[in-house]
What does this fold into?
Amino acid sequence: MDLAKDALAVALVSPEIKTVLIRGVSGSAKTTLVRSVPGTFGKHLVNIPPNTNESQIFGGIDLEKTVVEGRRHFSEGLITRANGGLLHADDVNLMYRPVLNSILESVINGKVLVERDGISSDYSCDTKFLATMNISESELDSHILDKFDICIGLEAIGNEETRYEIVRRRISYDTDPESFCEAYAAQNEKIYEKVTKAKERLEFVSLSEDILQLIGAVCSELGVEGHRGDLAVANASRAIAALDGRDNVGPEDVKKAARICLSH
It folds into this structure.
């Protein structure tokens, strides 16, 4: 769980890291971790409910306003509402593949292409995509997995005390979200400040030639195809160093970055 929390912090520090996938069996606290993001990291979270259609996600014609006003009216989608924050979807392995692919492409490229309802247009989007999936159900194709900069696996929680605490916090949040957030305000404030300082430091964090060669060697050894994996590890390594208050990336940063970026 700690590695997963670190991965989320890395994603929020690095502007180049756009997509995060959290995989695990049922009971591994994937949803609980996701729900902690707004309070912990100060980012608003927009959820994509199951069976949401393309127009609801990417935007489309608002028929009611179009009829009333006598002209086409374009309504924004969930991806637009997530600007400046995070777009989230549970069970992405059960999502219609073309829609999932379009979400990933839109977030990665920072641009949404809309071609439906007689409309052909594009608009910019500035969000990160945080997805979860249950590994006991259907898997994702390799070309989809490759589009996630970070991929973290969570194991089922067997420790009795930990399971109790997760359930207690989940019920507490569902019952009274505002009081729940207030209870952890001080702890969350420290994490938020750490992430904020890391974002400010990031531009000064450098990658030496030795580190770049190490990243290449690690990705080559793991059989990583293409260059997305190398770039993800490089960006994550810089964010990890920044979170640790350093301006130089070391081998341990690369090792940790590989764990969170290359476990597809």
Observations:
- Residues 219 and 225 are 8 Å apart (CA to CA).
